[in-house]
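Collaborator request, handled under Task 6.
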Amino acid sequence: MTPIPFLKMHGLGNDFVVVDTRESATVFDDALVQHVGDRHRGVGFDQFITIEPPRSAGATVFMGIRNPDGSHSGACGNATRCVADLLMREQNVDRVVIETISGLLPSQRGSDGLITVDMGAPQLDWQHIPLAHPHDTLHLPLTVGPLADPVAVNMGNPHAVFFVPAVQAIALAELGPVVEHHPLFPARTNVDVVEVLSPTHLRLRVWERGAGITLACGSGACATLVAAVRRGVCERRATLTLDGGDLFIHWRDSDDHVLMTGPVATSFRGEFAL
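Structure tokens returned to the collaborator:
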């Protein structure tokens, strides 16, 4: 059987297997995604990314996003930057529009080489997170060990943002899956723990829904800034330091959109068999 070529890419260590299916239209089942995602017997990734023909007018491509357990994700900021970088180099342009199941994500390259993605406006109503019951999303009635009183934000996928005195003191590997699968979140949730270093600098760690702890999470950084602004502890433009490095987030008041800026990198090329 013909091998499937892929790129291994990452944004601040948040790593992806990227497969271009614009011409082959190959469909990958859950078992294949899980096998490729195995870091011991496969390739390993935080998300499995497919580049597909666009489905909407104005989009350059459609980007499919799968987690290591085979489940689908609505948005991934770091992967969007990686795919945008590939397309800009391919087409010799400095702006593209990436389509996901959560909408269109305009992306552009700056003079410093960093990629900025317009992640759109945050969803803040309880129905759009979604939550199982009506609640004030600025203060959810949820406590799991030392984690309490989170803010709920949807940035293409759901996030529960917890403010803590020190992120390194949180046993995220133990607490993350408990919060992810809490009955309050019928579609599960990403779990963000954040330490406020200053009004323009936040320290963040993330447990990603369906993936576990990752070195960086673009949508998580965006959701965290929104949560911090809503809580009155951060300005609308700030640096988010994750385990893998820094992202620069700006929640514009002009149109409510959140802009995420950061680097991309290609680790290697390879092939796998179906």
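The cover message to the collaborator said: "The chain has a mean pLDDT of 96. The first strand starts at residue 4 and ends at 11. Please let us know whether this matches your experimental observations."
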